[in-house]
Design brief:
The longest helix has about 40 residues. The termini are far apart. The chain has a five-stranded parallel sheet, sandwiched between helices. It contains twelve helices and five strands. The N terminus is likely disordered. With about 350 residues, it is mainly α. Helix 1 packs across helix 2 and helix 8 runs parallel beside helix 12.
C-alpha cells in the first residue's frame, strides 16, 4: 500500500506545533491549501506563521494549553538628578593576600604598601668616642662599655671606606648600629667623629709612654705577616689581610710616617697625639682615663651607676705574644713542608725526563 505525501498545510501545521503549543496525538490541524505556503526551513516557517492569519480550528474536547510570547515594552520612569558635593575618594583597604605557594609566587607578588607614609626611626648616633691609641687599655675599655650597655665598635670593618677616608654618609654606614667607637682606626678620626656627633663624650686612654711603645712593637708592629699562599689555611682565617693593609697605610705609614721603628720619634708622636686631644676637646666632655683606676672615674663621667662586678682588665700583651709565637711557628713549618714538597716533585720530574 503506497503512502501519499501529506498536504503542505498539514506539514506546516506539524512544524508549527513544535514551536507554539503541544497537542495530543488525537488532535488534527487542518488549513486551507491557499492560505499558507510550504516553508522550506524552520526559520521560514516561523516567519510565515507570524505574517499569515491563524487557521480556524474546531473546538476540541481535550483542553489545550497554549503559550504565546508577547513582547512588552516597559518604560522606566526617569530618576531626578540631585546635585551633590563630591566627596574625597577613600583609599581601599589593603588586600589580604594568601600565603605564597612558592618562591616564584612570592617574588612576582606586588609589595603591599601602607596608605600613609612610615617615618623612619632616627639613628642613635655615637655617644662615646675613644681617642686613645692601641695598647693603651682600649680592649679593657671596650669590655667595660659593653658591660654598661654600649654597643662598641672596636674592630675595623668596611676596609675600603677606611682606606679612602670616611666622609659624609660613610660614617652612617660604618657606625650604623653602634653608639660607641674606639681603638684603631676610629681613634685616628676622633675629630671627624666629634663633628658628626657633637654631643658625644670623648675618652682618652693613657699609659706610660715607654711601656706603650714596647707593647705596640711586640704585639702589632713585629707581628708575623701571613703569606698570601697560606691564606687558605683555617689556622690563619682569623688574621684578615685587609686589616694588615689598612694598618700599614693608616697607622705605620700614615700616623707614624713610616718611622715607628725609631723609638724616640714614635714616643714623641704618641705624646703629641694626646696633647692634640686635650687641646681640641672641651674639658667637660673629655675624660683622661687609666684603666687601672677602675669603674669610678668612668661611671662618674658617663653618669651611670657603678656595676657590682670587677672592672675588666685583659692581659692583651701576654696573649698577643703567645698568638704571634704560634703563628710564626706555623708559618715556618708550612714553609718547610712546602719547600720539601717542591724538592720532591722537582727530583721526580728530573728522574723521569733524564732517562729519556
Amino acid at each position: 500500500m503506497s503512502s501519499s505525501p501529506a498536504p503542505a498545510g498539514k506539514k506546516s501545521g506539524a512544524i508549527l506545533g513544535g514551536f507554539f503549543h503541544r497537542r495530543d496525538k488525537s488532535d488534527k490541524v487542518s488549513a486551507s491549501k491557499g492560505s499558507m505556503k510550504s516553508p522550506t526551513s524552520i526559520a521560514s516557517a516561523y516567519t510565515t506563521a507570524q505574517s499569515s492569519p491563524a487557521p480556524p480550528s474546531k473546538p476540541s474536547k481535550t483542553p489545550v494549553s497554549t503559550v504565546v510570547s508577547i513582547p512588552v515594552e516597559i518604560s522606566t520612569p526617569a530618576v531626578p538628578v540631585i546635585a551633590t558635593t563630591a566627596l574625597p575618594a577613600t583609599p581601599p583597604p589593603p588586600a589580604i593576600l594568601s600565603p605564597p605557594k612558592s618562591f616564584a609566587d612570592a617574588v612576582k607578588r606586588p609589595v603591599p604598601r601602607s596608605p600613609t607614609p612610615v617615618t623612619p626611626l632616627p639613628k642613635v648616633g655615637v655617644k662615646v668616642i675613644g681617642a686613645g691609641l692601641p695598647r693603651t687599655g682600649t680592649v679593657s675599655l671596650k669590655l667595660a662599655l659593653e658591660r654598661l650597655g654600649f654597643k662598641t665598635y672596636a674592630e675595623p670593618t668596611h676596609h675600603s671606606l677606611w682606606m679612602q677616608g670616611p666622609h659624609g654618609d660613610d660614617w652612617g654606614i660604618i657606625l650604623d648600629e653602634f653608639d660607641a667607637a674606639l681603638d684603631f682606626p676610629a681613634a685616628l678620626h676622633y675629630r671627624e667623629l666629634l663633628k658628626q656627633n657633637p654631643g658625644a663624650m670623648v675618652i682618652l686612654t693613657v699609659r706610660n709612654a715607654d711601656k706603650w711603645y714596647e707593647a705596640v712593637k711586640e704585639t702589632l708592629y713585629d707581628a708575623p705577616r701571613v703569606p698570601f699562599y697560606f691564606a687558605w689555611m683555617p689556622f690563619f682565617w682569623g688574621m684578615n689581610p685587609a686589616t694588615s693593609r689598612l694598618a700599614s697605610k693608616l697607622l705605620w705609614d700614615g700616623f707614624f710616617e713610616g718611622r715607628f721603628a725609631d723609638k724616640e720619634y714614635a714616643v714623641a708622636r704618641y705624646k703629641r697625639h694626646n696633647d692634640e686631644v686635650r687641646a681640641s676637646v672641651p674639658a667637660k666632655r673629655l675624660l683622661e682615663l687609666n684603666v687601672d683606676e677602675g669603674w669610678a672615674p668612668l661611671c662618674k663621667f658617663l653618669g651611670v651607676s657603678i656595676p657590682d662586678v670587677e672592672f675588666p682588665k685583659v692581659k692583651v700583651v701576654a696573649e698577643a705574644k703567645k698568638r704571634n709565637c704560634r703563628v710564626r711557628n706555623t708559618i715556618y713549618a708550612a714553609n718547610f713542608v712546602l719547600l720539601g714538597a717542591s724538592v720532591a716533585v722537582g727530583l721526580s720530574l728530573f728522574q723521569k725526563y733524564s732517562r729519556k
